[in-house]
Amino acid sequence: MSARLLFALCLALTWTSVLMQDLCTEGASDGYKVRLSIKTALGDHAYEWNESEMFLFKANLAYAMRRHFNMQTYNVSNIIVCDETPRVSFWFVVANPADTSQLIPGGEVEEAVRKSRNRINNAFLLTDQTLQFLGIAPTLATTVIPNTPPWLIAFIVVICVVSAGILALLVSTFMKKIRKEKGVLEEEKLENVYENGIPRDGPEGKAGSLNGGFMEDERHTQL
Amino acid sequence: MEKDSRPSWDNPMQFVLACVSYAVGLGNVWRFPYLCQMHGGGGFLIPYLIMLVVEGVPLFYMELAIGQKMRLGSIGAWSAISPYLGGVGIASVVTSVYLCVYYNVIIAWAFWYLFHSFQAILPWAECPANANLTGRLEECELSTPTQYFWYRETLNITSSIEEVGGIHKGQALCLLLAWMLVYLCIVRGVQSTGKVVYFTATFPYLVLTIYLIRGITLHGAMNGIKYMFTPKLEELANPMAWINAATQIFYSLGLGFGSLIAFASYNQYHNNFEQQAIIVSLINSGTSIFASIVTFSIYGFKATFNYESCLERVRLLLVNSFDMAEDSISMDNMRHWMAELNSTHPDQFAALYHKLENCSLESELDTAVEGTGLAFIVYSEAIKNMPLSQFWSVLYFFMLLMLGVGSMLGNVTAITTPLRDSKFLSRHFTKEVLNGLVCLLCLLLGLGFTTRSGNYWFAIFNDYACTFSLLLIVLIEIISVCYIYGLRRFEKDIEDMIGHCPNWYWKTVWAGVGPVIIIGLFVFYISSYIMGGTPTYHAWDKDLGRSVPKVYPVSAQVVIVLLLLSSVCCVPLTALYVYCKKKDPKEGVVSCPLTSKEVS
Lengths: 223, 600
Description:
A: about 220 residues; B: about 600 residues; about 70% helix
């Protein structure tokens, strides 16, 4: 009895897998080709592509489908892979968990992949260019546009420095001119003093009426 | 009394550095390497050095002598030589105004790139994403990120010269800053200029040296340097090589603008300018050669990078199309694999054939670029691939800034010195106000170049505003010094200033060889302009992502003719004016109908 049950189970499984393989063909309308360039991306740290990595891929895709539909029904077995090449490229289709003979339409798969693209990339340490889903456009990161463009900040700093320099030079020229004019006025005053040829103020300064010349003579005559 | 109170350089070193700063400009960096590439690499040095010795140094010497002797700006100096020649000085000033107006726009662009270098990722390193984030902007994909940044973000260029577009605000701000910086450097005349030139003359050499070290150590730089130094001597038979060498020496030394006369007019009377003329000319040419070594190492790096990227793309195409393992095809065995795949899968290979690029290092090195294309597109493309690109970018654009500002100091001094010499202007305006007004006027005129079609007008000014008129001005200069002023009188003046007569070599060049060369260049220019047909320009087509040649519209051609003639016709007009004034000294009228007696 158990042997017969086992036999029936094996038959059912092979039959389903054959059926599922029929769903996945090269160029399937609801499927996508995936291409990985592991050696280009990672160089010496490249890992080998084997069954475990394929399992990871299927798991990631199942996760992407769960996330997109917000349903917990997707499993690794729903992701069907075929046509693997030494390039490390293959086709995959996604079967409907409710009815495994039906495929999820390509549009839905595309949206699911786009939503979780970043997570899938990171699981394999690859980028949009090295883990390619042919036919699915990558979602580029939104460029962060700051409120003030950074160049404007540098510009404002430099223009303030230059303006300060110009102002400093103009102000110092102006001050020099005022000082010169004051100096000229002083000179003119002193010139006026000697205008008549007679020193009005004398060596003692602006004191007044003392005639310094005579003072000097007095000193001499004292001797 | 006037001569004693003329401002002067603090020491002769400032004068030499000012001349070096003026002569060593952007042309040394972006025009000479291009000419080298066009005319057979190392072989171009032969006509270049010959022209330097035969034409460059003697003319430079002559201008310095005139300035130092007359101690006036270009208008005053030429009026002193002969009253009828005042127009030569006015033509110099007009040409300098044109030059100032368009040259400072380059400094504005250098500022723009400099400010944009302070970002984590250089904005010209990658294409920006398109509206729905599925890919890159189409215009950028078709061309390259550096070209996109130049044509779209920096210039926001229209598709033809007739579409004016609005003013690009960022450019206008940068132009304002550029003029403020120039004003800061010249505000007090030679006193401020003399201090600034210590920096503007020496800093570019520091940067060029750093870049030389960096450039030579780049991968693939040797390809570029080898390409430059393998002389293709058959190019010397091409007359264009000699003509280009002559014009390059001519414009590189900045003859005819009046800047050299202005700088020399602030010298002490007995300054030994003969030695200084030789030194400055040699430094200028040496800098050109030095800069071209740097440029060619950068070219080599860029060409090798592009060549290897091309090979990588071909490899990827083969590996992807035939689904082979990634590491099966490498750069070395690619040819072998291509032959094998052709034999094993002929149909598939044939289908692929048109997509396979023909990668050639030679063709990458052969793409010769000059002018703003070299400075802003090619160099920034090379810089973005260098490690620590922000630092190199800042350094490079700061150097361009210093080169540009150094030349601008000379250009603006050529305008302000004759204006300061005029008694009327110096009585009513102080030095600072006059310099400020000149800068303001040039800024307002220059705003036209910040419009979206501004780059097309820039190209017009670059090609036509100064080229033709300078040749004529220098020709008149050299003929009037030798034959109107008198070579003997000039000789005596030089002996008076520096203590010995100029030897036979200088005199031969001034009286004979120089005028012959310049007349030759002159004739060549006129004939190539007339026979060249309608002039064309390169307009950026945003749908194709590249430049397409277009014919100038009538309005632009009128502007070209006006530019060519406007400075040149100052000479005969002024001569006529002076002649009329002499005829009617009492009336002092400007216009005078010539009576039949006077005509005969």
